[in-house]
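Let's practice the habit of predicting before peeking. Look at the sequence and jot down your guess about where helices and strands might fall. Then scroll down.
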Amino acid sequence: MNLRSVLLLGLGTGVCCAVQAQDSDITIPHRAGLPVGDSIAAAAPGAVQVIYSNLAGHPTAEVPGLPGVGFQPGGGNAHFDRVYGSPNGSWALTAFADLPWTEDEVLLVNGELVVREGTAATWTSGELVGPLDTKVGVNDAGDFVFSTVTNGPAASNAYVVTGGSDGTLGVVAQAGSPAPAMPGVTWGPFLESPTIATDGTVALVAGGLGGVPANENKVVVQGATVLAQIGVTIPGGQIGNEPWQNFDFLDLWTTPDGEHYLVQGDLDGSIDTDDVVVVDGNVVVQEGVVLPGSGFSNPVNNNGIVGVHMTPGGRYFVRGNNVAGIDWVYSDGQLVARLGWPITPLASENWSDRDYADCFFLHVGNSKGDYVIGGVTNGDSRTNGVLVLNGERVLAREGDPVDLDGNGVFDDDLYLDTFGNDDGYLSDSGLFYFVATLRNGAGASAGQAFLSIQLADDVIFSDGFESP
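Done guessing? Here is the structure:
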């Protein structure tokens, strides 16, 4: 998660590469440096704003709701996890506070602490919240969903839980309890990858189900509907006729309207062709198969599917590499970025994996068709992590200064360093949230931060990005 990286924002035309290592009108709680009532979205276009940091002693490092407690200090990308969001700018992410390891993980939603490890699990009795899965969900209303394993009895201590603005937490799924989507079947001990729709419907991946054969005991469900089941469901569009064998951890995506879904996993076939990405029941990318419409003659490499994403509008993104060693980003049936392409039409820099195993590390989009791709270039290794906007301009670059205290002056001796794998989210209003490490002017690691960049108004349109 701490490889050098690049992010690219572009239109549905050709864009390019990045490294691997992941709006709002939401008002965040008051802290020094941001007047009460100011929205993050009010930041000047292109300005990198610090929402939270782990720079010990700084106001941005204080965990909301825990006076006197800071985010876990130190370098690296281990303190703020991946951020997830909804079209209107609601956001959620897990992070680590500077507390004992049994109570240090927290879930933040729109700047408020809503759940903390080691505290009472209020949705049940006599149990404590356990570690929180990185994958969480949030909708426009600020309703959220997460998964955890408490310190309760092993047969029943795995949960998927929802919450809302009233502070009440409720159980969607619990190990050992009936699974509404499958009469006579009980939830197993593996409950993960939850998402939440606009109407509150939750989708999740469940494994170890009771009441079904072992080779059929893992499912993807949405509300009371089974979307896919291992050993039973046969995705269309594959080169063979194999059922699902497994679903990958954290790789379920659904749209807010509940109409579309994406899941990555393995088919019950040859290990050379079993890894697939499935959208709405049909394979769109398959290991060992040439990407349709890519112009490649070489197929997707063994274990060559690296990352997936579905936007709120239902557009899918997949990144990976082919057997010729070319890294790519593929979206809705076309190649949108690849190794060797220029980062902007007239740029002298190209997307490159010169210093890393992978060129690309991130691809996210909003419901308007706008998207962000992350990667590295063949430029100076100290500054070759970049954010490219609209496929035409560099929005931010590794080494750019960061305004820590929000005073409008770069007087904090802090600069962008590396971006985390997939640690990003783009809202419909053009506010891009991301997690990155920071360094000082001497090049020494300074810590990590959860940040935002507001895209300029002239590049955000209701039908996606356009050139000004």
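How did you do? The CA atoms of residues 266 and 454 lie 38 Å apart.
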